[in-house]
Design goal:
alpha/beta; binds zinc ion; 2 domains; 8-stranded mixed beta sheet; single chain; Metallo-beta-lactamase, Chain A
Length: 384
């Protein structure tokens, strides 16, 4: 695929040499999408000649919109008139997501994807499934016992939507865009967030990376897998939590732009100063929903432009109102902590225990041998 794009880019390069890159129309700058190893052709022109299609918001052959679903995630991707909805936000914004699709004449979704089954990501998908025909669904390969997960399964069944649990390395198409599955690398994680379906979407030379709520462990495994994670636009993992957007991921992805979906005054203290500093250190241009509402990037496969100016507000969420990690309530007699989902046991002070979903977490005073007899295995990282 890379090879093919490279050839396509080269063949276009000759004709492009005579044209000016029109760049990102909202900022006067000209920022063509860079392709490693290929010098960027950039002509000096006083009044760049723009094809009308590039200025028409809905006429762009590719667009990615981060909807403003508050503390949640919902992303609508359009390529050559075909649509993918990745997550639908939480309960409170479900009707807004449905209305957004209707107002933008999205009468059918080629793909509907859930990053993972947390409420702030899938509640809105249930509403969309009730109102919009969906051809196929991409879902991570785990189950959970929440009510919202059951509702999602029910409506997928009622609407006869074929569900695919893709494996890492699988690819799908959306118009001329290629959807690459880059995560999760496995389903052995302690937190459901790490089992987020991570997609790299490539449209010509423009690439976007969507990692849902994947956290450090999953990010490290993606980087270690050697899969190409480079992108122009990175959708900031887990609403800007410090447990995501690791240095390793930013180095591997090396994005120029970031979209951050986060709710104003959310109780988690998102986004964290740590994540915002990392983005700034990598000189990444930021757009964020809590300050700017919905934001869209457009591309023709060679350059990109945005619906609004970059966000200049780098202020972090309020850590003072952030929930205290629940690990402070480890019972005194607890020898180990169990993950009832992965059937692994850990030492109670193991850091990833904080990230473990509460419904899967169980403290125990049982012995090591007892746990093994019950079918549990010792965590390979903390070696209890
Ligand atoms: Zn989330
Ligand atoms: Zn989550």
């Amino acid at each position: 695929m890379l090879q093919k794009r490279y050839v396509r880019f080269l063949s276009g390069l000759l004709s492009l040499a005579f044209l000016a890159f029109t760049g990102c129309t909202n900022s006067q700058e000209q920022i063509p999408v860079s392709t490693p190893g290929i010098p960027v052709v950039q002509a000096e022109v006083s009044e760049p000649e723009q094809s009308p299609a590039l200025n028409r918001e809905d006429g762009a052959s590719f667009s990615l919109t981060m909807l403003d679903v508050g503390q949640g995630l919902s992303i609508l991707v359009q390529a050559d008139g075909e649509y993918l909805l990745y997550d639908g936000g939480g309960r409170g914004t479900s009707s807004y997501v449905v209305a957004y699709l209707q107002q933008h004449a999205v009468t059918e979704l080629e793909w509907l994807a859930a990053s993972h089954y947390d409420e702030d990501h899938i509640s809105g998908l249930v509403g969309v499934l009730h109102t919009t025909p969906v051809e196929q669904a991409l879902m991570p390969d785990y189950t959970t016992d929440t009510q919202i997960y059951q509702s999602l399964q029910t409506v997928l069944g009622e609407k006869n939507v074929p569900v695919i649990h893709p494996a890492k390395g699988d690819t799908f198409s959306l118009g001329e865009a290629e959807i690459q599955v880059v995560g999760p690398q496995n389903y052995d994680y302690d937190s459901d967030n790490d089992e987020s379906l991570c997609l790299r979407i490539c449209y010509g030379d423009f690439q976007c990376l969507l990692t849902g709520d994947a956290e450090q462990d999953a990010e490290q495994d993606m980087v270690a897998s050697g899969q190409d994670l480079t992108c122009d636009l990175y959708v900031v993992g887990h609403h800007g939590s410090s447990s995501s957007t690791s240095e390793e991921l930013l180095d591997a992805a090396s994005p120029a732009y970031a979209f951050l979906s986060v709710g104003e005054d959310n109780p988690y203290g998102h986004p964290t100063a740590q994540t915002l500093n990392a983005l700034q250190q990598h000189e990444i241009t930021l757009y964020r929903t809590d300050q700017q509402g919905e934001v869209t990037v457009y591309s023709d496969g060679q350059k990109c432009w945005f619906s609004t100016e970059p966000c200049q507000d780098w202020s972090a969420g309020n850590q003072a109102i952030a929930e205290k990690p629940l690990s402070t309530t480890v019972p005194q007699t607890a020898q180990y902590v169990l993950n009832t989902h992965t059937k692994k046991f850990h030492f109670p002070d193991w850091p990833s225990v904080d990230q473990m979903s509460e419904k899967n977490k169980e403290f125990t005073d049982a012995s090591r041998d007892e746990l093994i007899a019950r079918g549990y295995t010792a965590c390979g990282r903390c070696n209890p």
